Give the backbone structure.
Amino acid sequence: MLKNFSDIENLVIVNTCCVTKEAEIKSLRKFRQSLKRYPNSKIIATGCACRVYPEKFSAAYQVIDNVQRNSIIKGIFPDPGKARFFLKIEDGCNEKCTYCIVSKVRNKIESKTIDNIKEEIYWAISLGYKEIVLVGANIGLYGVDRGLHLIDLLQALKGIPDLPRIRLSSVEPKFIDAELIQCLKDLPVCRHFHIPIQSADDNILSRMRRGYDAAHLKRSLDLINRNFDDVAIGGDVIVGFPGEGEKEFLNTYKFIESNSFTHLHIFPYSPRPGTEAYDLGDSVVREEKRRRLWELKNLIADKNYQFRKNLLGKTFNIIVETNADIISGLTDNYIRVEVNGDYDKNTLIKIKINEVSKNKTYGSI
């Protein structure tokens, strides 16, 4: 966006979100703060909240919804200036999860062509990036608008010389199968899967309209673990969805406890106007949601600690993200390691993990 509007001086871009009501409120607050803080600047508002409530952002110099934005930035390759290159391969999701507004504000699937993605990868390589993260609203839906599949894209990447390591941002459970796993094994893929499970109780999954059950989740996790050593598996979980009693929550808790999760993003359910689940009400009180959230947080903290202890003495490559006296970087299996040394940012170095604490992991060159 900045590249496209580079001719405008004193430009402020506010990128909005409406995935929850709270996110929408925060976006609007940030927009209003920008108007006050930068009275002599031109404020551009973009993102999902602008698509739902454009009138709330009418004071902007320009309001650009997602469809317009995708058209504007098409073909512009970014230079993010970060240690990892985030490559958006598709936008949009047409799934019908009852709690989610995304399929209403971004329901048109738009996938980049394989050739365009390869061009952008060559661009990332030319900038010196050692890791490329494939991102999108729902990358499992990549290519459905073009008669393609995510596997078609991954197979096309195999022939790229000096391909950096590839990380998948997030993959829905329904897209994890043997064919995808085999294709990933033929690439320099990061041993890290982030899976938005949302719940592991069959009744709640049905009410969410997720299209799978706990048995399917179990098969997906087993498939991953059979094919990758020391693999990190993260997930998204919603606690307090309407109808989730203690029994349903315990089903989710026990599923996470008994399976090899290493990271979780945990969200208390928040009724979102415009979604089907909004009409179900909000039956779980805030204090109970908070209790369940912290029970899962404590559980995953213990599991993450144990996972990292099992990596002691093993070697990994990390990409340097900070270059102070103590450098920091991510392993391919999503462990942040601190190391004494002096290396430039975005350098790929081999380290050995030699110490872990509850909150940190330390290594040596």
The chain has four domains: 11-69, 77-190, 191-310, 315-364. The chain has a mean pLDDT of 94. The CA atoms of residues 145 and 225 lie 31 Å apart.
